[in-house]
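Protocol step 4 of 6: structure prediction from sequence.
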Amino acid sequence: MRSPGRHAMAGFSILVNVFEDFGGIPSICTPFKNSEHSLRNKVIGAVLVAHELGHALYEIPDVYDHGDACLMNSSVHSLNNRQAYELMTEAMSHCPKCSSLAEQRMNNRQD
């Protein structure tokens, strides 16, 4: 979201929805046991917050054709956030398509 009163993050702000993780509705909530608070926090940071920062800082849109391990993938067949986190940490690499988009955005800002 653009926020003209903000000076940080080039005037952008982010909104992170954690309902899927904390809402308590079995059909849509990411499965976590009580002993997995640390993992839950990593998932929220690495998937939800990082995804929204990708929008705010690099203006990368939701994408649907970058593969399951891509942070910005929002395809309808998408996994729950825990599964997405596991795929991303397994791959431990940047999505080449998103890296290219981010680089273009950063170059445009410097012009």
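Step 5 (inspection) to follow. Residues 8-110 form one domain.
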